[in-house]
Amino acid sequence: MDQMMKQCGEHHQSTIKSIDRISKTLQDAKESNDPVKMRSAIDQSQKQLADMRERMTMCTSMMNMMEKMQPMGGMKGSSK
To answer: What are the backbone angles phi and psi of residue 10, rounded to the nearest 5°?
Structure first.
């Protein structure tokens, strides 16, 4: 279970970095006012968003498994 939590933490950090990269990519393209750069920024952002969704889906699955493993469906330390 500790390994799963560690992986989710790593996915969380990776997702935050991806959000920052997407924001910068889109802002730079917007400031360039270049249609080719804007299109490229959109394409890159869509790929990064798909990667983020995949990581979040994995963590959601892990959290669901962990919750089912806990007595009475609660996670250790949760405020349920």
So the answer is: -65, -40
Tokens of 77: 């330390």
Do 67 and 73 touch, CB atoms closer than 8 A? yes
**For the whole model, what pTM was predicted?**
0.62
Residue with tokens 């919750």: 67
Q: For residues 59 and 3, give the distance between their C-alpha atoms in angstroms, rounded to a whole number.
A: 12
One-letter amino acid identity for 66?
Answer: M
Give the model confidence (pLDDT) of 25-62 as tens digits: 999 999 999 999 999 999 999 998 998 888 888 888 87
Q: Which amino acid is at 17?
A: K
Show me where the domains of the chain are located: 31-61
